[in-house]
Specification:
The chain is α/β, with parallel strands linked by helices. Helices cover about 30% and strands about 25% of the residues. It contains four helices and five strands; from the N terminus they run βαβαβαββα.
Length: about 120
């Protein structure tokens, strides 16, 4: 059996950083969490991440800004955005350049499973 795909969670909300990796592990993924986009970029295994779950609105670099930076750097990794923002307040064009979904907080385990299946088909 192969290694579990690494899913990186980047969210400034401590409760999300504590609970979401646990759920991802229950679903069969390796998971690690970061408080900010800058912390993720300092991670020595950025290229190992097979999927990113990014909060849209964070202090410093936003989730969409991190996604664009990674694409420019050649790290085209599937992204699932998560947000507490109302749909009308979300930045336009989120579901481009590898983004597969945008889930509104709080989201269900079922919605997360669907998004992960789209991001990591065959896992």
């Amino acid at each position: 059996m192969g290694a579990q795909p690494l899913v990186a969670v980047v969210d400034d909300d401590e409760s999300v950083r504590e609970s979401l990796p646990d759920l991802l592990r229950e679903l069969g993924y390796a998971a690690t969490a970061f408080e900010s986009a800058e912390d993720f970029l300092a991670f020595d295994r950025v290229a190992d991440a097979r999927c990113l779950i990014l909060d849209i609105a964070m202090p410093g670099m936003s989730g969409p800004d991190l996604h664009r930076k990674l694409v420019i750097q050649g790290h085209a990794v599937p992204v699932i955005f998560i947000t507490g923002l109302a749909e009308r307040s979300r930045p336009p064009g989120l579901l481009q350049d590898g983004a597969v979904s945008c889930l509104s907080k709080p989201f269900s385990e079922g919605d997360l499973r669907i998004a992960l299946a789209a991001a990591l088909p065959g896992t």
